[in-house]
């Protein structure tokens, strides 16, 4: 979460975390870039803790939380 916070562009905000899930709100114009930052930050952060484990991250761009 620290990596993500440091990397998020202006206009993007980490609004919630639930277990291994992070929810970021941002303008639609930067959603794909923010998704890529989210994925790379989660993978990099977990590799520091578990370098021998393969890390897969699923990330979706949604307009509401109900679209999960």
Percentage of residues in helical conformation: 25-40%
Q: Could you give a short account of the major beta sheet?
A: 2 strands, antiparallel
Strand order of the largest sheet: 1-2
Unreliable residue stretches? none
Helix-strand category = alpha+beta
**So how many helices?**
2
**Radius of gyration, CA atoms, in whole angstroms:** 12 Å
Estimate what percentage of residues fall within beta strands.
15-25%
Q: Quote the average pLDDT.
A: 93
Question: How would you sum up this structure in a few lines?
Answer:
It is built from 2 helices and 2 strands. By secondary structure, the protein is α+β, with helices and mostly antiparallel strands.
Keywords for this entry:
single chain; 68 residues; alpha+beta; two-stranded antiparallel sheet; 2 helices; globular
Report what the structure shows.
The chain is of the alpha+beta class. Helix content is 37%, strand content 16%. It contains 2 helices and 2 strands, in the order H-E-E-H. A two-stranded antiparallel sheet has the order 1-2. It is globular, with a radius of gyration of 12 Å. The relative contact order is 0.18.
Architecture blueprint of SSEs:
Elements: H1 2-7, E1 13-18, E2 21-25, H2 31-49
Antiparallel strand pairs: 1-2
């Amino acid at each position: 979460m620290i990596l993500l916070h440091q990397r998020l562009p202006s206009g993007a905000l980490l609004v919630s975390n639930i277990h291994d899930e992070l929810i970021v709100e941002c303008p639609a114009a930067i959603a794909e870039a923010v998704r890529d930052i989210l994925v790379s930050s989660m993978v990099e952060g977990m590799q520091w803790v578990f370098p021998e484990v393969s890390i897969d991250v699923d990330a979706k761009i949604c307009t509401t939380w109900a679209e999960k």
